[in-house]
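User: I want to check something. If I give you two sequences, will you return the structure for each one separately, not as a complex?

Assistant: Yes, each is folded on its own. Here is the first sequence with its structure:
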Amino acid sequence: MEHIARFFFGVSGNVIALFLFLSPVVTFWRIIKKRSTEDFSGVPYNMTLLNCLLSAWYGLPFVSPNNILVTTINGTGSLIEAIYVVIFLIFAQRQIRLRMLGLLGVVTSIFTAVVLISLLALHGNGRKIFCGLAATIFSICMYASPLSIMVSVSLSLSLSLCSCISIINNVCGVRLVIKTKSVEFMPFLLSLSVFLCGTSWFIYGLLGRDPFIIIPNGCGSFLGLTQLILYAIYRNNKGAAAPAGKGEAAAAAAEVEDAKKVAAAVELADATTNKVASQV
């Protein structure tokens, strides 16, 4: 019965994670149409690719037994991320393209090093711990990648995608919700999907007694729940407008500009979310 339940939550996590992976398609279609990456950054896509690769490797039977569902979604994620990176490189300006090529080289080198060390120098539980730690450590690097790119709000991935989504979405989105006292820039469906995805993988990790899945996705589930609670609190609030002095007015104007950028990115993600919601 436990194996059936674990399989169910793993499949659920795969379905929801795939839907979240595909959210930025609208953004990249915009990049293709405009033939420009505009102000978007390629860093999160490269870091997400690294995490997908490391997590897919971690889930392989000879590294981490009984975690093949981790490999299926992260293997798929690696392919999707690679496509995003290629599109970004094609349409980026020359200077940015060179930087992103350098970062892609670092990503490839790190993954290759982890694979070779785990295959040639480690065996059994030591291999599992090493690969699990590598995936967790570099997920932290992804958390720190530029948070101005809300366009990639639904791209970030740790061992099972959604914990990073929650981290990035909460750092930016929750801060904005609290400041504006409005959920205008935090789509409910996306927040709910993040929570369900994190919870599915958290339970999957608990049933498999795997700390490298439990810890990041437990955080993802908690942060997704935080979003839902904030939504419940501020759902009927359109935001408070307070009088401001000159200095405050300048700061407020800057915040409005940031809010517009966030809103534009969230709208893009939400458009895709609504389109495929019936399939989840």
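And separately, the second sequence with its own structure:
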Amino acid sequence: MEDRRDTKLLTQAAKFKRLPTHPMKDRLCQPTKGRLKRGSFIHQTRVLERRHQDILDQQPKDIPQYLENPSWSDEGRPQIRCSIPGVGKKDSQSCAELKSLTIEHIHNSYPQRQWTHVYTGGSADQAVRSGGAGIYIKYPGGREEEHISHIEHSPLSSNNVVFFSDAKSVLQALDTARDKELNDLSSALTSLCRAHTVVLQWVPSHCNILGNEAADTLAKEGTTKDQNDTSTTFKEAKTIIKAKQHKKWLQQHPHYNKNDTFHLLTRSEQVLIFRLRTGHNRMNHHLFTKFRIGQSDLCPCQTGSMTTEHLLQTCPLHDGLRSQIWAEATTVQGKLCGSLDDLQRTATFARRTGVSI
């Protein structure tokens, strides 16, 4: 909860600093005339910013005061395609399968003789520092370039232009036209669409598609160039703050496993497993030792303290049910942190005992 609060404080302060007419901007950016109350928003923000010097070093870029998002016109709207036939969810297919399906789709839908292929890529250190962008263009005649400024007027370009990108979230945001920060990009695409048929096509990343890999290589080269512009938008500031807080959280939780089968459970199953894992539940041991609720921490069987291990392993009141759920001896670790089937068995056992977890 403390980390969440800190993230909210830093994010809100970053927003105030980028609102040119907001009264809080001056209060945050200028020295104070008197002592601040320790519990005030400004005091807590400055304490946090001193812990993260790189946040103080940022040059805030004002949030553009757009009145509305420009709507796509029928004549100036690119086709946005965020899927490829046969390509499933992330990590569900091998790199070779993804490459084969993607190349087949590109060959059939955007034949090189008729389309100008533009691959775009971006790179940054932990997505927050030393950014770079790369653009790789292949014209119908076979010529290749590493620029994009010539697409609209180049004699080499065809009337059909397809942009390939692995940034699905950006394509989806363009499609909905709700993100005002993409207004400049929308305007540029609208201009290109006046004389060209334009398609924005998502492609999977890191599956050895030649053009996409070339753009990524150029983007990585860009990260090594001098980064003279230290100004940051509000969206960039939010990304930096969240990345720092996430890194801090991972350091505090070294045993965190992002592939934990816990995440595949239903919501009700997750609640049960979480309470059994942490010991923060409604069983007698936790209620009595933490809140002095009840007469003791003993289980109703009177043979031991009513803990997670006692319930799952030794409570004689549930021996019959335990043998039905687990035909073979299983450790507490296996029941709480094992396979998906193990966790589902544990959740089923907890429900059928009738114990309030």
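Because they were folded independently, the notes below concern the second chain alone. The CA atoms of residues 157 and 289 lie 74 Å apart. The longest helix spans residues 234-252.
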